[in-house]
Design goal:
CATH architecture: 3-Layer(aba) Sandwich
Radius of gyration: 18 Å
Number of domains: 1
Strand content: 15-25%
Largest sheet: 5 strands, antiparallel
Distance between the termini: 21 Å
Oligomer: single chain
Number of helices: 7
Length: 201
């Protein structure tokens, strides 16, 4: 049986060579993000995953100002920084970014309400973040858009919080960069799936 879900997952890759010439409306992108977050499952229906969509000058500011300057302050050798600068510019060259957060107040409330699962809720929070991330990543790819996932948190957390007025209880988990695909990535070597999926009948 051929499933669209599997076909989309096959095409979902880490695309790093991206530009701003996407053939999809901003409204469609916004609706995708809203739908993924609305319909994705969460522990006890906590709806703890949050998002901020950065487009246009806001996306450029994240990478060209916040990330670039934060990393520049960590490296005092210009020649060593060239490679980092090129990498960050590749993210800036993309079309937009979805900042993915977890609401830690909501997680804390669940920890108090169900103390026997106290530590497990942090793990489930990571699961929820992963669920919305793959939903976004696959959904963007189905729209013809490529993406890659970055983790410049916690280095950029405070600047992001101030710039976009993010609630203090939202913890930044990742940055999903997306844009028009300029180049297909190389094929990745895969382990034999029968070593990863065991069947007992």
């Amino acid at each position: 049986m051929k499933l669209n879900t599997v076909e989309v997952l096959k095409k979902r890759r880490s695309y790093y060579n991206l530009d701003k010439n996407v053939d999809v409306s901003d409204e469609d992108i916004k609706n995708l993000v809203k739908d993924v977050f609305y319909y994705s499952p969460s522990p006890y229906n906590a709806q703890n995953s949050k998002a901020v969509i950065l487009l246009n000058k806001e996306h450029d500011y994240l990478w060209g100002n916040i990330v670039m300057e934060t990393l520049r302050s960590k490296v005092d050798d210009d020649s060593k920084f060239k490679r980092t600068e090129s990498k960050i510019n590749s993210f800036k060259n993309a079309y937009g970014t979805v900042l993915i957060f977890e609401d830690m107040d909501t997680i804390g409330e669940l920890q108090e309400k169900f103390p026997s699962y106290h530590d497990t809720f942090l793990e489930w929070s990571d699961h929820t973040s992963g669920i919305v991330t793959i939903g976004l990543w696959a959904g963007l790819r189905e729209m013809g858009i490529g993406a890659n996932l970055q983790h410049y948190n916690p280095l950029i957390d405070e600047d992001v919080r101030v710039k976009w007025d993010i609630p203090n209880n939202w913890k930044l988990k990742s940055q999903l960069v997306f844009g028009n695909i300029l180049e297909e990535p190389k094929e990745m070597k895969k382990v034999d799936i029968n070593e990863r999926v065991l069947i007992r009948e």
